[in-house]
Amino acid sequence: IPSEFQLKAISAINAGKDTICQAPSGSGKTAAFVVSALQLLDQEDKNTQILVISPTRELAAQSFNLAQSIGQRMDISVGQLVGGSEVSKDIESLDQEIQVVVGTPGRLLYIIEQSKLKTEKIKMIIIDQADEMVIRGFKDVIAQIFKHTPKEAQVVLVCTGDLSNEIEEITDQFMTDPTMINVLYENNLSLEGVSQFFVSLQEDEKISKLLDIFKLPTLSQILVFCNSVNKVKKLHEALIGQKLKCVHSELDESERQRIVSQFSNGEQRILIATNVVARSAAIQNIKSIINFDIPKSIETYLHRVGRKRFDQIGFVINFVTDRDTAVILEVQERLKTKIDPLPLDLSGLV
């Protein structure tokens, strides 16, 4: 019996939409995209139509085995191109008509650039375990693969965690208005007890507004979110003289944990961070959150602002420029919540 996640994912993919699937390990992501891909494939067309990119040989084998098992019953041919095997044998296998190709990024790109894998008829590209793909440094390789594929191809991106800045770069560049299927935290985080506000301003007005908020004596700790490492660094430079710390992905894990621990323990009043701390349990008790940059996805907004317990109250102030308005409206609609204008008198914020 398909899970709720699989039903949602298959429905979105079969509707022909670019789709981002976020779900924990063991939730059936591979089955969801394999079943969808095979359903959309034209069985009469023997050209390569589906391309599955996996970060490791093991994950590629998992997708290949499932696709081959189902494909045999549908008279669909499936091939596998992975690093560690003989290139000559991979190229030789392409002499046969293969409708679904599963492979690792480096091997796929090499064979495509050798003109041995024809990509002009590809209808769907699946990026499996995108978070692992980014960790292993394959983002640029994926970009090169996309240069050889039709721009109108449907794109499905699958990951087991939140969308990092690097993954969002991939989605922004290669996906069109993607449908989000996320069951990572559906039953785990709540906006209950979180007062949400927005202030409309221009980009160059943000720092001045931030400093006004910092002056409030009632705010003991303030967590400020930015969308990129570069933005965190620039904001830190602009706030010279303020007692604050920064956390981002360029710091090693032990340093990040040390800074977050100091902040959560009250040793530091202000922390500027990227989404790298959005899922940290250590920030659950922080009552004052500022979205200096509005996150690019609703899921990221929930991870930054949501709470695991109803008694964990707090507030968030969203700095909204003209380009952010649509995201804020969608947050309210999809999360069934309300974001009010920031009051002129900030003394009531606690």
TrEMBL record:
Cross-referenced Pfam families: DEAD, Helicase_C
GO molecular function: ATP binding; hydrolase activity; nucleic acid binding; RNA helicase activity; translation initiation factor activity
Record domain Helicase ATP-binding: where: 10-181
Superkingdom as given in the UniProt entry: Eukaryota
Helicase C-terminal domain ranges (all copies): 193-350
Keyword terms: ATP-binding, Helicase, Hydrolase, Initiation factor, Nucleotide-binding, Protein biosynthesis
Gene Ontology CC entries for this record: cytosol
Listed InterPro entries: DEAD/DEAH_box_helicase_dom, DEAD_box_RNA_helicase, Helicase_ATP-bd, Helicase_C-like, P-loop_NTPase
Name the UniProt record assigns to this protein: Eukaryotic translation initiation factor 4A
Organism lineage: Eukaryota, Metamonada, Diplomonadida, Hexamitidae, Hexamitinae
